[in-house]
């Protein structure tokens, strides 16, 4: 298992461990209880992290979140599907070889994501393994 860091509040999901600061300099860390289209609710405090009513509230500032995920595949040619890459869900990506002209950007998507074709492992915050098979086989 690996831990990925979530830096966009829009990407927070149920079960993520969120870190927030308050206007007095306190730091609060805990898991989210549930996720709604309006935002993720911060653990035992019950304060909305990205709910529209609280986004501009001066009392809370989102710092980051972390999520436990399976390790990304490392073998060149590996495929991930239903991936969230750069905050965009539903992407498919293929693992490039270790040596390539894009340096640490070892994953390529089948469509541009946020104007990029190539992505570093830290750009990927959720995924499912996939596989490519010849036509007619499963």
Detailed description of the structure:
The protein has two domains: 2-69; 79-130, no CATH class. Mean pLDDT is 77; it is low at 36-41 and 43-50. It has no helices and eleven strands. The strands form two sheets. The protein has a six-stranded antiparallel sheet, with no helix packed on it. It has a five-stranded antiparallel sheet with strand order 10-9-8-7-11, with no helix packed on it. It is mainly beta and 138 residues long. It is elongated, with a radius of gyration of 17 Å. Helices cover 0% and strands 51% of the residues.
What key phrases describe this protein's structure?
single chain; 138 residues; mainly beta; 2 domains; six-stranded antiparallel sheet; five-stranded antiparallel sheet; 11 strands; 0% helix; 51% strand
Task: Give a summary of the structure in a few sentences.
This protein is mostly beta strands.
